[in-house]
Design goal:
The structure is a single chain. Strands 6, 9, 10, 11, 13, 14 and 15 form a 7-stranded antiparallel sheet that branches. A 5-stranded parallel sheet has the order 3-2-1-4-5, sandwiched between helices. Strands 12-16-17 form a 3-stranded antiparallel sheet, with no helix packed on it. It has 15 helices and 17 strands. By secondary structure, it is an alpha+beta fold. The longest helix is centred in the first third of the chain and has 14 residues.
Length: 441
């Protein structure tokens, strides 16, 4: 294109680069009247349309640009952006893949490809794409944020301190060394594959493990293979309630091991999971590890804890109306927060995990204060009895190491000023998958 049209195009590009979208759009359209096959103009009009939220017009112009200049990776990338915004994730992914194929260092397109893969449920592929983008440009903020979010969504960060929790690992390992030799073991909730590998090392006759979260299951498969145990462990990428004896498991298991316990003991649906396993996956005399669990607690107070739960007076102002948003319970690592224990330890709930049914429960508790102080609620932790010989618990203490399970703090609606000997009346309830502790009315 020569002459006046060239000058017009230059003016349009200049307006675009200075952010004058209205003038740029007018000039690009004028150029298009004289040169309807101008790929650059179609591309710029498509980008402008997307910025104005006219996704259909953007997709039309960008599709035309790609058709006219299929060798331009930026055209494919921006078409992918339009298609993704329109909800056509499969076509968007194809556009991003083409852009990356044309330019394997195109960081924005690689990042966008990761987002399309994540939207399609390919978490591991997305994570690999984000990492690839960051290898090219370590300072690419969007890829860094996307990577962190994708990793946390696939495998929340508490997996790491849990894997490093030496007392927990030692407790499970000791119980498996006693229970697993010569027996069929089922591990529910494979995670990293650690417990399944412990069972093999302990001499299990066979080991089956299941994991419902697909990217974790695939990664556990890699971990098991890296430890040379892929021929000794059958990993099923499904929920335990989808397992079938004779299809997935050759026979019913004689030992069940599981770590599907939340900080609040029951919140990962361990009770319904065990009920199903008893009915469908285990022999009648199967050993369950852990065989019992408790939610334990004490009355808690202290200025640092109160600051986590109640809006303070700050800079001379009363902010207490903000307490309307305060949670009734919150997960905290109480090992790391200075606080006061205002009572002896007490049992909130106990679960005999060898039973076949676990109905919901509600109970009244009266707890006697042993120290003076402002009580803000109840601190709760868990105790797991692996077998007759080994117990694990994560009671808060200063020397606690890595611990994937936090503590749960059940907040009172307002602090209580306690003196030694005062009785605090509580009501506790669980619905099999959630738990609450509150002041009795």
């Amino acid at each position: 294109m020569d002459g006046p049209d060239t000058d017009l195009l230059s003016q349009a590009v200049a307006a675009f680069n200075t952010g004058d979208a209205a003038r740029a759009q007018t000039l690009f359209r004028e150029v298009l009247l004289h040169d309807p096959a101008n790929a650059v103009v179609h591309h710029q009009l498509g980008v402008l349309a997307i910025a104005q939220h006219d996704l259909r017009a953007g997709e039309r112009h960008l599709s035309q640009a790609v058709a006219l200049a299929p060798w331009e990776p930026e055209f494919h990338n921006n078409l992918g952006v339009a298609l993704n915004a329109l909800g056509d994730t499969a076509a968007a992914r194809q556009s991003f893949e083409t852009a990356v194929l044309l330019n394997d260092g195109f960081v924005a397109a690689i990042n966008n490809l990761g987002a399309a893969m994540e939207a399609a449920g390919d978490s591991l592929g997305a994570i690999a794409a984000y990492r690839r983008a960051l290898q090219i440009d370590p300072g690419y903020v969007e890829a860094r944020d996307n990577l962190d979010l994708a990793c946390a969504k696939a495998a929340p960060p508490w997996h790491f301190p849990m894997m490093a929790d030496r007392p927990r690992n030692a407790a499970y390992d000791a119980a498996l060394r006693r229970a697993a030799p010569g027996r069929r073991v089922l591990d529910i909730g494979a995670g990293s594959g650690l417990l399944a590998m412990m069972a093999v090392r302990a001499g299990a006759l066979s080991v089956d493990t299941c994991e419902a979260v697909a990217p974790i299951a695939e990664t556990a498969r890699r971990v098991i293979a890296a430890n040379g145990l892929e021929d000794r462990i059958a990993l099923h990428a499904k929920h335990s309630e989808q397992l079938q004896v004779g299809v997935d498991l050759k026979e019913r298991a004689e030992v069940l091991v599981t770590e599907t316990f939340a900080s609040g003991v029951v919140s990962e649906a361990v009770l319904p999971t065990l009920e199903h396993a008893r009915r469908h996956l285990l022999t009648p005399d199967a050993q369950v590890i852990p065989c019992a669990a408790w939610a334990l607690g004490y009355l808690v107070g202290g200025e640092a804890i109160e600051d986590h739960l109640f809006a303070p007076r700050s800079a001379g102002f009363d902010l207490s109306q903000f307490d309307v948003f305060a949670p009734s319970k919150v997960g905290l690592h109480l090992d790391r927060i200075r606080h006061d224990s205002l009572s002896d330890d007490f049992e909130i709930f106990a679960f005999d995990l060898t039973q076949t049914l676990f109905p919901g429960e509600r109970r009244a508790l009266t707890v006697k204060a042993t120290r003076a102080g402002r009580c803000v609620g109840v601190a709760q932790w868990l105790r797991l009895k692996m077998d007759a010989h080994t117990t694990y618990e994560n009671r808060p203490h200063e020397d606690a190491g890595s611990n994937g399970w936090m503590h749960v703090l059940y907040r009172f609606h307002e602090p209580l000023q306690l003196s030694p000997g005062d009785d605090v009346r509580l009501v506790a309830g669980h619905s099999r998958t959630t738990m609450t502790v509150a002041l009795a009315v």
